[in-house]
Design goal:
The chain is α+β, with helices and mostly antiparallel strands. It has 13 helices and 29 strands.
Length: 552
């Protein structure tokens, strides 16, 4: 296939744009055979990469669907047709660099440009083109050297493979692309692709239980946690884990400091969870520290700096948070100390690690974003050891082979139909029950192959929630079908008999398997499943949360 290369870089401070396979500064070592395509850049001098991509023609058929894999856990992921539009951050944010940074901080708008034109689409790490049951999959095996993107213009028969190379200083051979290609059925291509990855055995079991976030957010106390722990007693046989989320620490980043909301300390909570026979889980944002945290105030040298030398905003939660720099030795040691205390002194069995993308918002130290994220995840895995690591807010390609479980959707929110920000599309990572359901369906192939899918929580409670009963059951059913991490945030002690029976039902994984999932209309999804040799059909309106065919 005729491929055209585009390489831009700095050499001695001079920007150079080249289509050459070899020049005075580099040579490309290209191999393509048996469904595998590799490009290695061999430098002849030190060069700083700006961009690298290859493009070629591809004939799209009228019924082809392109799979757009989202950047990180929360990013919208689905199949697109030639008339669909892939949107970036809200345009209003582009009027000022700070606003643009603020709006795009969780996503990849700083990496990949989106035109908003029909059929101009992209996918992070891997993609497929589906026509009926026929699948063609392209996937990267070189994400530790930088993020790979697949970009298409379906109406112009254009296909490109791109490396997020910005900031990479190349002084030795650099693996730009290592792409594999497969054709076959849905399960066949994913079995082959993920089967080729050099990754350790992942946890393929299930976790069913509780997380505190979606009822109290940071307003948890020792009494609330113990009460909700006891509330699960009627479902003890179906429960395996109990996780404390954000709110036990005085400020994000000050994980080990005393908090008067938990006067007996966090080891006491872990001990109480273990008395019930459950695994004890706890939430940490290991790279984040609030602007007002003790860590940020006492150790400003530990923080990632922007181009002006000021601490870089890594996320907008909690009134803004900075990011610990993993390349700072003292910051790195602090991160290790936190995990040693939480896992070995307090005794927690699982850590939910959140806002991980913040470590690689901008390139630095001669490394591109994907390289930084790979090294950050490697550090976390070393810290966690053989205990359970649940990733969240993490670039998906960096989670593969590291996380035992991983969020594959945005936050579900407490209002099914969404709040005002859902209707103005601030970003592709905004919390939304509809987006969470969508992502769970279209990322179902990761479950059990790569890690345990965490589709976020479902709800059965009556209070502090704007869901219909049908919407609650729809969310629970999709979570059970597509995920192996099945959590609620309810005080089950308030349940009636019907709610408790449903909790037990949805905490148990069945052998029901999705055979196909089709978006028939923008808001209508049809799912065909198989269970015990019987085929069933299930159709629902995603926007309304209403079942159109089949049973919950």
């Amino acid at each position: 296939m005729n491929k055209k290369y585009f390489i831009s870089y700095l050499c001695d401070g001079i920007k150079i744009v080249s289509n050459d396979l070899e020049n005075d500064h580099y040579s490309l070592e290209i191999s393509e055979a048996d469904g595998r395509y590799s490009v290695i850049l061999n430098p002849k001098c030190k060069i700083e990469m700006l961009d690298f991509y290859v493009e070629f023609p591809y004939e799209f058929k009228p019924q082809d669907l392109f799979f757009g894999a989202g950047y990180q856990s929360w990013t919208t992921t689905k199949e697109y047709n030639k008339n669909d539009v892939m949107r970036g951050t809200i345009k209003l944010s582009h009027i000022h660099p700070y606003l643009k940074h603020f709006a795009s901080i969780t996503g990849d708008d700083r990496i990949v440009e989106r035109t908003g034109k029909p059929g101009e689409l992209d996918s992070h790490g891997y993609t497929y083109i589906r026509n009926g049951r026929s699948m063609k999959l392209w996937g990267s095996l070189s994400e530790k050297t930088g993020y790979t993107y697949f970009k298409v213009k379906m109406n112009e028969n254009y296909f490109s493979i791109r490396k997020d190379a910005l900031g990479k200083c190349v002084t030795e051979p650099w693996q730009v692309f290592d792409i594999v290609y497969f054709e076959g059925s849905y399960d066949e291509v994913f079995d082959k692709y993920f089967g080729m990855m050099d990754m350790p055995a992942t946890r393929k079991g299930t976790m069913s239980g509780y997380t505190s976030w979606y009822n109290y957010f940071q307003n948890i106390t020792e009494d609330i946690i113990i009460r909700d722990l006891n509330g699960l007693d009627p479902a003890k046989e179906e429960t395996s884990i109990f996780q404390i989320d954000d709110g036990y620490e005085p400020y994000v980043g000050d994980w080990l400091d005393y908090c008067d909301k938990f006067p007996k300390g966090m080891k006491y909570i872990a001990d109480k969870v273990h008395e019930k026979g459950y695994l004890a889980g706890i939430w940490i944002a290991p790279f984040s520290c609030q602007k007002v945290s003790r860590i940020a105030k006492e150790h400003p040298d530990w923080l990632i700096k922007d181009e002006k030398g000021k601490p870089q905003l890594g996320c907008i939660a909690w009134g803004g948070a900075y990011t610990l720099d993993i390349y700072n030795d003292e910051a790195r040691e602090y991160i290790k100390k936190v995990f040693d205390t939480v896992l070995n002194e307090w005794g927690y069995d699982m850590v939910k690690l959140d806002f991980l993308y913040s470590e690689c918002v901008t390139p630095r130290n001669g490394k591109c974003r994907g390289e930084i994220m790979y090294e950050a995840m490697k550090l976390l895995r070393e810290c966690v050891g053989d205990k359970l690591l649940l990733g969240c807010g993490v670039p998906m390609s960096a989670a593969i082979g590291v996380c035992d479980a991983c969020r594959i959707s945005c936050d579900v929110d407490l209002t099914y139909k969404g709040k005002f920000y859902n209707h103005i599309h601030v970003s592709n990572e905004m919390l939304s029950a509809q987006s969470a359901i969508n992502n769970s369906i279209f990322r179902r192939h990761l479950n059990g192959r790569v890690f345990m899918n965490d589709p976020d929580v479902f709800f059965l409670r009556n209070n502090n929630l704007k869901f219909t009963w049908e919407q609650k059951k729809l969310l629970a059913k999709i979570n059970n079908l597509c995920g192996n991490v099945l959590f609620v945030s309810d005080n089950a002690g308030d349940y009636d008999a019907v709610q408790m029976a449903l909790l037990k039902k949805y905490f148990k994984k069945t052998n029901e398997k999705i055979i196909s999932a089709e978006r028939l209309k923008p808001d209508v999804i049809n799912i065909v499943t198989e269970e015990d040799g019987k085929t069933k059909e299930f159709m629902f309106n995603l926007k309304e949360g209403k079942v159109l065919k089949g049973e919950l």
